[in-house]
C-alpha cells in the first residue's frame, strides 16, 4: 500500500505531489530544491544550494523512517554541468561507501531557477 510522507522540517509541496511516498520498504522522494522549511530560496551558489537540498532530503527521509545511509539511487538535475564538481564536493560529504547509484543530468531550467534539484530512492528501516 502506498503511503504519503510529509514533514514540516522540509519545504511543503508546491503542487499536486507529495514530498515522498512509500511502497513497502521503498521510499521515493520528489525532487527537492534549495528552499528552506519556510519555502524561501537559500542564498548562494550550487554548493550552498546542494547543502540545503540534502538537508531537505535528510528531513523527508527521517519522516519516512529512514536516512541517507539507506539511499540506493539518486538523480541529480543541474542547471549547468560545469557546476558538477562543486555539487559533487558537497554531495560526497553526505554519502559514504557503498555509494548509491546515481544519474546526473543537465536540464534547461529548474523550478524557481535554482541551480540543483535532487531526488532519491531509499530502503526503509
UniProtKB/TrEMBL annotation:
InterPro entries recorded? RidA, RidA_CS, RutC-like_sf, YjgF/YER057c/UK114
Q: Which SUPFAM superfamilies match?
A: YjgF-like
One term of GO molecular function: deaminase activity
Residues that span the membrane, as ranges: none
List, alphabetically, the Pfam families matched: Ribonuc_L-PSP (PF01042)
Could you name the Gene Ontology cellular component terms for this entry?
Answer: cytosol
Q: Which family does it belong to?
A: Belongs to the RutC family.
Under the heading NCBIfam families, the entry gives: Rid family detoxifying hydrolase
Which PANTHER family does the entry mention?
2-IMINOBUTANOATE/2-IMINOPROPANOATE DEAMINASE RIDA (PTHR11803), 2-IMINOBUTANOATE_2-IMINOPROPANOATE DEAMINASE (PTHR11803:SF39)
Q: Mind telling me what this protein is named? A: 2-iminobutanoate/2-iminopropanoate deaminase
Native species: Deinococcus reticulitermitis
